[in-house]
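Late entry, nicotinamide-adenine-dinucleotide complex.
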Amino acid sequence: MGCGRRGRLLAPHRRRQFPLWEGIRVSGSIEYTGTDSAETEPAGTGSTRTESAGTVLVTGGAGFIGRAVVDAALGRGWAVRVLDSLRRDVHGDEQPLPEGVELVRGDVTSLDDVRSALVGVDVVCHQAAKVGLGVDFADAPDYVASNVLGTSVVLAAMTELSVARLVMASSMVVYGEGRYRGAGGAIQPPPRRVEDLEAGAFEPVDPTTGLSLEPLLVHEDADLDPRNVYAVTKLAQENLASAWTIATGGSAAALRYHNVYGPGMPQNTPYAGVASLFRSALERGEAPRVYEDGGQRRDFVHVRDVAGANLAAIDWTADHPRSFRAFNVGSGVVHTVGDLADRLSRYTGGAAPVTTGQYRLGDVRHITASSARIHAELGWRASVDFEDGMREFATAPLRAAVR
Ligand SMILES: NC(=O)c1ccc[n+]([C@@H]2O[C@H](COP(=O)([O-])OP(=O)(O)OC[C@H]3O[C@@H](n4cnc5c(N)ncnc54)[C@H](O)[C@@H]3O)[C@@H](O)[C@H]2O)c1
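Prediction complete; structure with ligand written out below:
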């Protein structure tokens, strides 16, 4: 049962009543979708547990990943409420949320909005964030407000309303350049030098020997090394969640997603992921432009699998009070950015990719995670094969363009 609020009250406990939906625009029916019917099992769940008859609040539930989480939660019998500000810089004219899902249009930085959205909630799945690399450093206050202040407000309101279970979206960006094997063993190299990038020498080298390094899979216990503002805020979100579990006895799982792709990805905005940028180029009849030499190693994980990982983590929080745990979420199969461009060109029948040799400062060369922990502890494993996922994604609808 999704019963975080019953019998597991946080101390010190302050319960206040808030008028439901006061001052908040709510659309959609307040009727719940069949609470006990687990008609569709989301892909990649891997969990044998059946959780039912609870209410989950999905912050950012109108977004790319949030919508997939909403669908997966409905399929597992959860009543679903969404808190989303529908940011103008990420949303165009879009499909409404599924029938029976309550939408609270509000901001995670507003205590009143979050309090209202939390009434009657058992578990929070916190996806809302300002995402991507942004345009320039002037974006920093906006990242910090949405992601760091926003998470602190969500946690404060959860404490006040005795909601003790959190799953939050984190990212592989917390690891920085990833992990490599050099002459002296495993190392995390410093940022690549501009002179090397200018010369087309893209592979990180061992700072002591100057020789090439062998990329390894990153485990959750690796040193964290956020290298841009977005990454700093994702790590701060994790740190806040961890501090909250210590202070309140709550349970928090941080899911460090790899590169997520799939239907509903945002189109060509400064915040879109590389898969969506390539897709958008192909739709315009242009070739995907691949930075560096296309050899950057990544793990592309399908959005339905990521949603399944969230459901498995929601189950985990029911049994792990006073715990914070981070889990990598990847497909477990390494590909390159060049592979991605190649498959999307092939499956759309579009122009062949162009490898530009250009680079972006702050980009990491290789980052691939081990998803062994989430498989061992949560029973989750990705189920969408890269070729199948790319074939589907090549023609799947993207999120409406921002006006
Ligand atoms: N897409 C990826 O590859 C990826 C990878 C790693 C981590 N993540 C994380 O996954 C989560 C979801 O990302 P996404 O790709 O679906 O992004 P998205 O932009 O599609 O969705 C984010 C949603 O949050 C909402 N939002 C933003 N700021 C808000 C605020 N202050 N208050 C309320 N709502 C707000 C937006 O309106 C949007 O609907 C984020 O936390 C992101 O950091 C995404």
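Residues 60, 62-66, 84-87, 90-91, 107-109, 127-131, 146, 150, 169, 171, 234, 257, 259-260, 266, 273 surround nicotinamide-adenine-dinucleotide (CB under 6 Å). Will revisit in the morning.
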